Amino acid sequence: xxxxxxxxxxxxxxxxxxxxxxxxxxxxxxxxxxxxxxxxxxxxxxxxxxxxxxxxxxxxxxxxxxxxxxxxxxxxxxxxxxxxxxxxxxxxxxxxxxxxxxxxxxxxxxxxxxxxxxxxxxxxxxxxxxxxxxxxxxxxxxxxxxxxxxxxxxxxxxxxxxxxxxxxxxxxxxxxxxxxxxxxxxxxxxxxxxxxxxxxxxxxxxxxxxxxxxxxxxxxxxxxxxxxxxxxxxxxxxxxxxxxxxxxxxxxxxxxxxxxxxxxxxxxxxxxxxxxxxxxxxxxxxxxxxxxxxxxxxxxxxxxxxxxxxxxxxxxxxxxxx
Length: 322
What we know:
mainly beta; Immunoglobulin-like; 2 domains; 2% helix; 43% strand
């Protein structure tokens, strides 16, 4: 049995053919090995069979194949972005958007196969998540197209997330660069952190997985407040925290009347490379501030004298000793 795969870009208006993905099917590993007495490589393709170009063999399950690292077993690699060491980032290779991958099966003569046809003795089954207890959950009844193929719909988006702490202040009033925040009453005063965290702004599709915001105190880095969400914060969003809550006792540390703090904001995208999350598209921002009790001003100093008493005068008499 042979297979081929093609990919097409898709938008809300329909599907437009772009290129034949069977050209990349097998680029990662055109030869794999099975055990006999020695290791023998076996070419899987691409082959032209019955007028169908770029077909690849399905590995024969009766053979004793060597269990290689999963990256070495990659039969289909589609590089939508490539890492650039000089730029220290991924450089997109295809336009962002929604794509459809089509998987088709053929017999040894190059005839297209349909698992729903009468008498078909095979079917598609697709893993739906990572293995649980050594067992892979699968969908053994995927939607099959009228031509016998199955479609994989996916979005390509090589955009960085955004994490930005815009301001930190008391009661919504932001301070300057060196943020020494003076409070009056720790039981009622609140520190406000204003931030945004997202993947893309509307109307574009946002693929933010989650973001987390934390406030850490002192040299120990004790977390005194944290907040996380899977909902993008496209517009400035506020986190209000009481002063006494920030200065409270945690374990053996505190309470305090003044201390220094760090604010950390981290955004995680849903972008994956087929095996794991692409961490290079994550974003992080850090801010800092110090809290202190506002000093009570001293009253102005005045010297009072009674009108009933004579004014006090003083003079320095210098005496000379003969």
